[in-house]
């Protein structure tokens, strides 16, 4: 599958909660590859890309975290001004709405996680325009 | 099945006669053996001769929890302590606990009462029955225990505490029946799921649940998760313990064992008796008890009575579900709110765990009600807007049911304290000066 499984974790706004998640994953030897946090006044949702999805879900649920999986798409582009904009232009032109996205970059490459409203169509458009999509195995 | 057809299915005329006979004897006993009642009756200018039939019960004085506390420990006992073979105490959190002494005769009636309940639920000598009520001063454990032994079931005194061990016993011994509080039943279901045991594979068939008020939605939740038939069992230690009333296979109200425990419904404000069908405070008179007989004991439980023969064949009066306790009732900005109302709303929404806590506070002289509810471990939305909409839906629904506005707080799974006995659903932080 060309999509990636993202962990979504419900967290109350309490001191040390993100660290509690990190500790559970550390204990299981699971690496966090990217994450972002969306929050309201009293709760938030931590979105997380990890090295071993199934193991992470089992360990976190066993530690009483509310965890679910969400399909997202990860695109790679050059870490230069304007390259993300080019990709987003393709999506905007086809009316693909993005619910949320977050990015991480290293050296010459940048990767962006996108959660669009219409995932299959989003992938279709990206492929048609020869954008590089990163799957679970090459992440 | 019916344990004692003679008593449970007797005609209304026979019942009236039996109750009248027992009441006359009771009034004469307390008048002569309990100074507290003699004084009260003298103050009201009545003597045992004024009580001819059960209908004269309205002439008698009420008894309250405060009377029991004021006469702590043995003031209301009607026999010498040498006749008492067991003592239980209520779980009162304030003031003196309530002490209840039982004679050997009382214990016999108690086990007969529980036997009637269990038989109505379909428990027989062929069942393996686990008692998950706490053993000790609380009446639940020993009460259910001796009743189940009396029926002849194989009884396991599991008590509360080690829930994982309890699950293993249910699985390995093929336990078919269980007695515990409804909130503990849910905790047991959670533990079963967490241990990776398939509830469908267990032999559990019957649950006897009581000692705290619960809703019809809670019944559905327990039945779906534990794959058993969940029945209500009503009781209170002051009157006897569990076994005062029980449901039957029809699950349409709880049959009151009114040959032993005579029920009335009164208005908590005017103290006047209310007719069948009207909701008010439940009052009991112990018609056959020796150790600590009580006249017209005010239970604070709010319910109504149903008249008429049940499809199961029993003819005794039934009571509907407890709406709440007059002392559980929260008054928020002048409006009466019961935790059970909150529970039924939450259990209607599958997006949440059936675990909740009401936090009441007073901020700037205004009462506030916060309802904390747990999101499900594996079922919520990844999008904040959806979560906020869900929270609003619950808040709107609560507001329409309670008629006060509620602040809903979504909390993480398992963050609300689980209980093994009676659950604590309310934290009232208001300081009343």
Key structural traits:
heterodimer; A: 139 residues; alpha+beta; VC0802-like; 2 domains; seven-stranded antiparallel β-sheet; 4 helices; 42% strand; B: 433 residues; alpha/beta; Rossmann fold; GMP Synthetase, Chain A, domain 3; nine-stranded mixed β-sheet; four-stranded antiparallel β-sheet; 11 helices; 31% helix; globular
User: How large is the radius of gyration of chain B?
Assistant: 22 Å
Structural class of chain B: alpha/beta
Count of alpha and pi helical runs of chain B:
11
Question: What's the rounded overall pLDDT mean of chain B?
Answer: 93
Which structural class fits the helix and strand makeup of chain A? alpha+beta
Ends apart, CA distance between termini of chain B? 55 Å
Biggest chain pair interface: A-B, 24 and 19 residues
Q: In the CATH classification, which architecture of the largest domain in chain B applies?
A: 3-Layer(aba) Sandwich
N-C termini distance of chain A: 13 Å
Number of DSSP strand runs of chain A = 7
**Low-confidence runs of chain A (pLDDT<50, min 5 residues)?**
none
Written as H for each helix and E for each strand, in order along the chain, the element string of chain A is EHEEHEHEEHE
Range of helix content of chain B? 25-40%
- Under CATH, the topology of the largest domain in chain B can be stated as Rossmann fold
Q: What is the share of helical residues of chain A?
A: 25-40%
Calculate Rg of chain A over CA atoms.
16 Å
Strand content of chain B: 15-25%
What spatial form of chain A do the alpha-carbon principal axes imply? globular
User: Major sheet of chain B: order of its strands?
Assistant: 4-3-5-6-7-8-9-14-13
How many domains would you count in the coordinates of chain A? 2
Q: Give the CATH superfamily of the largest domain in chain A.
A: VC0802-like
């Amino acid at each position: 599958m060309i999509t990636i499984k993202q962990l979504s974790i419900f967290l109350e706004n309490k001191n040390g909660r993100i660290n509690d998640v990190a500790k559970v994953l550390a204990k299981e030897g699971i690496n966090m590859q990217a994450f972002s946090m969306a929050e309201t006044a009293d709760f938030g949702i931590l979105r997380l890309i990890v090295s071993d999805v199934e193991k992470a879900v089992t360990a976190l649920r066993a530690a009483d975290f509310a965890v679910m999986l969400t399909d997202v798409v990860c695109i790679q582009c050059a870490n230069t001004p304007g390259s993300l904009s080019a990709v987003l232009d393709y999506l905007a032109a086809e009316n693909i709405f993005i619910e949320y996205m977050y990015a991480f970059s290293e050296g010459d490459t940048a990767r962006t996680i996108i959660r669009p409203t219409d995932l299959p169509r989003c992938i279709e458009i990206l492929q048609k325009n020869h954008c590089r999509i990163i799957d679970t195995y090459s992440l | 099945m019916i344990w004692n057809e003679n008593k449970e299915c007797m005609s209304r005329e026979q019942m009236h006669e039996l109750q009248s006979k027992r009441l006359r004897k009771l009034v004469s006993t307390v008048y002569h053996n309990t100074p507290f009642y003699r004084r009260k009756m003298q103050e009201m200018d009545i003597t045992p001769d004024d009580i001819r039939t059960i209908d004269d019960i309205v002439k008698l004085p009420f008894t309250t929890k405060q009377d029991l506390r004021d006469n702590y420990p043995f003031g209301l006992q009607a026999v010498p302590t040498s006749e008492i073979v067991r003592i239980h105490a209520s779980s009162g959190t304030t003031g003196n606990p309530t002490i209840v002494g039982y004679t050997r005769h009382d214990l016999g009636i108690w086990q007969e009462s529980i036997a009637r309940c269990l038989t109505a639920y379909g428990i027989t000598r062929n069942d393996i029955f686990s008692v998950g009520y706490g053993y000790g001063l609380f009446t639940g454990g020993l009460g259910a225990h001796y009743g189940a032994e009396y029926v002849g079931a194989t009884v396991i005194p599991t008590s509360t505490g080690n829930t994982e061990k309890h699950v293993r016993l249910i699985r390995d011994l093929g336990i078919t029946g269980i007695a515990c509080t409804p909130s503990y039943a849910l905790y047991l279901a959670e533990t079963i799921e967490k241990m990776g045991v398939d509830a469908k594979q267990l032999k559990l068939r019957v649950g006897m649940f009581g000692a705290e008020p619960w809703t019809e939605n809670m019944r559905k939740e327990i039945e779906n998760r534990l794959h058993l038939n969940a029945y209500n069992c009503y009781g209170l230690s002051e009157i006897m313990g569990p076994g005062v009333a029980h449901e039957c296979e029809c699950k349409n109200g709880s049959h009151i064992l009114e040959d032993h425990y005579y029920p009335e419904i009164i208005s908590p404000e005017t103290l006047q008796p209310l007719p069948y069908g009207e909701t008010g405070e439940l009052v009991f008179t112990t018609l056959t008890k020796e150790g600590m007989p009580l006249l017209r004991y005010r239970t604070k439980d709010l319910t109504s009575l149903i008249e008429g023969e049940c499809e199961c064949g029993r003819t005794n009066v039934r009571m509907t579900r407890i709406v709440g306790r007059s002392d559980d009732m929260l008054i928020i900005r002048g409006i009466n709110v019961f935790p059970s109302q909150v529970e039924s709303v939450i259990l209607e929404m599958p997006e949440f765990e059936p675990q909740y806590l009401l936090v009441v506070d007073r901020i700037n002289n205004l009462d506030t009600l916060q309802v904390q509810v747990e999101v499900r471990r594996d079922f919520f939305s990844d999008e904040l807007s959806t979560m906020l909409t869900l929270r609003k839906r619950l808040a709107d629904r609560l507001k329409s049911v309670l008629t006060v506005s509620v602040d809903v707080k979504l909390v993480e799974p398992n963050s609300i304290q689980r209980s093994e006995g009676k659950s604590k659903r309310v934290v009232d932080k208001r300081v009343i000066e």
